[in-house]
# Entry
Amino acid sequence: MAEPAEKNHELTFPPEIPVPYEPAPAFAGLRRSRPAVPVRLPTGDRAWLVTRHADNRRLLADPRLSRAAAAAPGAPRARAIPLERDSMTTMDPPEHTRLRGLVMRAFTARRVERLRPRVEDHVADLLDTMARDGAPGDIVSGFARPLAITVICELLGVPKEDREGFQSWTDTYLAVTGRTPDAMREAGDRLKAFLRELVAAKRREPADDLLSELAAAEEDDRLSEAELVTLGVTLLVAGYETAANLISGAVFALLRHPDQLALLRRDRALMPRAVEELLRYVPLAVTGGTIRVAVADVELGGVVIKAGEAVLPATTSANRDAAVFDRPDGLDLTRDPNPHLAFGHGPHHCLGAQLARLELGAALAGLLARFPALRPAVDLEGISWTRAKMIRGPEALPVAW
# Structure
């Protein structure tokens, strides 16, 4: 029988993360005894935090848990500014179905695969520069971040000269703590203004890129300017920030597990499995998943979440659930099957999943081939991590070879 909400003791969100490269230690206990727990968000709002794998799969696919309702005025929220109401990430069917269908026509596996030679070229160029500059080199500033920004900007068609100012806007826009609401709103406005001008330029002079293709679609299949601008911001932010931290976090994890790194060096055929395991293992997000609001009563994790209450998925916790994964806290590059939730589940499954896999695989393959003796240049325990945003990663990762 489901437990009434009022019987649960409220926790503070985000949970304490004393070891930045591990999930919050509270998750393990919550999965065992309180898989759906009420939390107080940084905004002062309340939500339910859901930690088990099975419950996260259910909530990510349940139409009663609405992203659109979470973007409505006055809805509970985790960040100081509300969610974008015209974003594909905050829409429910049928609006979401229409918009995702239009985007998927351009964001196909074939288009992503066409990027492989360019991604591999960028990897090689960045590694050439690291080798020329000499050890130690920084995986974050010298490799992961420039690779991620170059790939997503080439996919969308962002000119080279416009890429440098993007990082500071993104850092502010994604903040959970440490930035004022006004600063976050201003960063979002600047990102949108930049994309609005870029979309107008693509309509005037189309090129071979994703924004041009979407902007030039036939009228019945066309995104509105607001939809296209918001989509561009979403893809730029996710394709840059998430991909950069995924690459640097994965390299950090391999360096901390030299046995697994040696295994991948010996058997490069393991790369596809290694990519999936690193996606599961690296705790990229504080919890994982966008806040939702129930539009009808839903039972999850043994409690009834009432209409109007907010829910936070915790896929970072779900990916360490012993009910699904053998030795869940261990890194095992041979793991198969690997039903992780790093890309979510259901209607909002990540559009960029294949691109993320391609980038991570190409980055690791390039590093291992160019620097077969890759090793940390500092004590890994002393590495500083970003903590003010929902997406985490090393601030710097010095390596030698």
